[in-house]
Amino acid sequence: MVLDWLAAIGRAAFAICRTTGAVALFGAEGVSHIVRPPYYGRMFLRAFLEFAYFSLPVVALTAVFSGMVIALQSYTGFSRFNAEGAVASIVVLSVVRELGPVLAGLMVAGRVGAAMAAELGTMRVTDQIDALGTLSTNPMKYLVAPRLLAGTLALPLLVVVADILGVAGGYLVATVKLGLSPSAYLNNTFNFVTTNDVVSGLAKAAVFGFLIALMGCFHGYNSKGGAQGVGAATTSAVVMASIMILAGDYVLTELFFAH
Questions:
Q1: Structural domain span for residue 171
Q2: Of 5, 61, 151, 187, most Cβ neighbours within 10 A?
Q3: Structural domains counted in the chain
Q4: Residue pLDDT, tens place only, 157-205
C-alpha cells in the first residue's frame, strides 16, 4: 500500500513537471515567432478586438460593482473607529493594485480563454491545423503568436478602464449613499494613489493577459479526442488560467511591494 501511494505521488509529480515543461516550451516558441517575420496583422487585430473591445462590457460591470462593494464594506468597518475618510484610499488602492487586474483577468479568462481553446481545439480535431502546414503556413506563427501578443497588450487597456470605473463606483456609493464629501473623497483618492500603484497593476495585467492567451492556445492546440477532448481542453484552459492568475498575483505583489 505504501509503495502504491509513493508510485501515485511520483506519477503526479512527473505529470506536473512534464506539463510545466511543455507549457514553457510552447510559450517560448510562441514568443519567438512574435519577433520574427512574417507577421499576420489581421489575426492580431482579430484577437485584440476579442480581448479588448468585446470583453469591455463584462469587465466594466465587474469593476463598477466591485468598487461599490468595497466602498460599502470599508465604510462599515471604518465607521466603528470614526475613520470614514479612509474609505477613498482603500477603494483606490484595492482596485488599482489588486481587484482591477485580477478580476479583469478572471473575466477575460472565462470569456476569451475558453473561446480560444475551443476554436483551436476544433481546428486540431478536424485537422485544420495540420492543413496549415501543407499550405506552408506555420501554425504557431499564424494561430498562437498573434494571440499571445494581443493578450499581453489588450488586458492592460481593459484594466485602465476597470480602474477608472471601479474608483467611480466607489465614489458614487460613498457620496450619494453614504453621505461623504465629494471633494474630500477625491482629494483622498488622488493623495493616496501613486504611480507605482498604477504601474504595478498594469504590469500584472500584461502578465495575466499573456497567461490567459498561453493557456487557451496550449490546451486548444494540443487537444485530442473529438468533441469530448475539445470540451476538456476548454475547461482546462479556464481553470489553469485562473489558477495561474491568482498565483501570479501573489508573486508579482511580492516583487512590487515586499520590502
A1: 2-257
A2: 151
A3: 1
A4: 999 999 999 999 999 998 888 888 888 888 888 888 888 889 999 999 9
Q: Which one, of 83, 103, 95, lies nearest residue 170 by Cα?
A: 95
Q: How far apart are CA 24 and CA 19, in angstroms?
A: 9
Listed in sequence order, the residues at least 6 apart from 123 whose beta carbon sits closer than 8 Å to its beta carbon are 129, 143, 220
Contact 168, 64 (CB under 8 A): yes
Residues 6+ apart with CB under 8 A from 21: none
pLDDT of 146? 93
CA distance 140 to 30: 6
Residue-wise burial string across 155-168, b where 16 or more C-beta atoms lie within 10 A, e elsewhere: bbbbbbbbbbbbbb
> Is it the case that residue 54 has pLDDT exceeding 80?
yes
Q: Nine-digit cell at 9? A: 505521488
Q: How far apart are CA 65 and CA 87, in angstroms?
A: 16
On the 0-12 / 13-18 / 19+ scale of CB atoms within 10 A, 138 is middle
| DSSP3 helix / strand / coil % (the chain, rounded to 5) | 90, 0, 10
pTM equals 0.90
